[in-house]
From TrEMBL:
Keyword Cell membrane belongs to the record: no
Keyword Repeat belongs to the record: yes
Keywords: Repeat
Transmembrane segments: none
The name this protein goes by in its record: WD repeat-containing protein 64
Gene3D superfamilies assigned: YVTN repeat-like/Quinoprotein amine dehydrogenase
């Protein structure tokens, strides 16, 4: 059986995935047919025919619908579950290895506590320059360089490799509170935002404490930051920033702007201060409360921003809307949206809020309310 499953995996490697919504509907139909068959088998009413669904057929159909991200052992556990108890409650996420409880049953928990996915292992990471009672505010994966950028509340920026070992760190002095970070793909630096400043860190500097540039002052408290990835930019990065007044900023930084000077004393870091007035900073008020996350979605050629604002909770539109006054595509969610992400394979945007989470289709319409806490 293992050989046949291996050939199935190879044949599906180049398979173009179906629309995720359609795949879910077809998978639900498959589960219903299987449950009906197993129920009839238990009652002695089932007569075998050409439409019989055995494990091989169930696995092959599931693999066709969702592609190689589905692992055989997870599908086998799911199939065995509905065979042993056709009345058992199931969730489609179980075939990807995520379970609402150890045995597929909802665990008991105190009222008001949320259910989370369980992980099988964890690893503790020690920062050599970490401050007392500090905590991480942001972790950003940089896939093409295979490392992760992190920032902490008390000013620690770090680069970690794919084995989560610290490669470089620096402490941003006089940083009241670092709220977020990202990687500048063209300038090959790290960008971070504090309450009133933008920090650009040259982690490749030969100095013991790497050089960084501070852009200040900023008008409001900066809460989140992201890089706009555009292939036609050379020696220039575009940055999106959200603040505590509902504004989203568009800031362009070039190598000429930074021009980081080498320090005479290479044991010390060179903190260069730049006046924010020397930069062409565009901003537009998109929300009536804190901007909790901004993200540029290159597959959709647009940006998204979310807020705890219940009226303009989530904005998804072209980046040009930040430079004009044309209407933007905005959505209202009770108690606002705290976070969101985009899945290119499924072509959906998932948002999470205080009480609800939503899935958006690529056409930017609500698909369904997926959880109520």
């Amino acid at each position: 059986m293992s050989e046949s499953k291996g050939s199935d995996n190879e044949s599906c490697s180049g398979f173009e995935l179906l629309d995720f919504e359609t795949a879910l509907e077809q998978f639900q139909e498959l589960v219903e047919k299987t449950v009906t068959q197993k129920t009839k088998e238990r009652l002695g009413l089932y007569i075998k025919d050409d439409d019989e669904i055995d494990y091989d057929e169930f696995y092959r159909t599931t693999l066709t619908l969702f592609g190689p991200d589905v692992k055989e052992h997870n599908v086998k556990v799911f199939f065995k579950k509905i065979c042993n108890n056709p009345d058992a409650s199931t969730e489609w996420c179980e075939i990807f290895g995520y379970f609402i409880g150890g045995n597929g049953a909802m665990p008991s928990r105190p009222q008001g506590e949320s259910t989370v996915f369980l992980t099988s292992e964890k690893q503790q990471i020690t920062y050599p320059v970490v401050k007392h009672r500090d905590m991480l505010t942001s972790m950003v994966k940089v896939p093409h360089l295979d490392f992760t950028v992190t920032s902490s509340q008390k000013g620690v920026l770090a680069i970690l490799n794919n084995k989560m070992k610290v490669l470089a760190t620096t402490i941003v002095k006089d940083a009241a509170w670092i709220n977020g970070c990202d990687y500048l793909t063209q300038l090959k630096c790290v960008v971070a935002v504090t309450e009133r400043t933008v920090v650009v860190w040259d982690y490749k500097s030969i100095q013991k404490q790497s050089s960084y540039v501070i852009i200040k002052p900023m008008e409001n408290s900066l809460l989140c930051v992201c890089t706009v990835t555009m292939s036609d930019q050379l020696a220039e990065d575009t940055i999106l920033i959200g603040d505590d007044k509902g504004y989203v900023y568009l800031l362009k930084v070039t190598s000429d702007h930074l021009g980081m000077k080498q320090c005479k004393d290479k044991k010390q870091s060179q903190a260069q201060i730049l006046d924010s007035k020397d930069f062409n900073i565009v901003k537009r008020k998109l929300h009536d409360d804190w901007v909790l996350k901004v993200k540029y979605i290159s597959d959709l050629n647009c940006f998204g921003s979310c807020s705890s604002d219940s009226i303009r909770s989530f904005v998804l539109d072209d980046i040009k809307r930040l430079e004009d006054n044309l209407p933007v595509k905005e959505f209202s969610v009770p108690k606002g949206v705290n976070a969101f992400t985009y899945c290119g394979k499924a072509k959906v945007i998932v948002t999470g809020g205080k009480y609800e989470a939503y899935i958006f289709l690529k056409e930017s319409h609500f698909y369904q309310d997926i959880v109520l806490l």
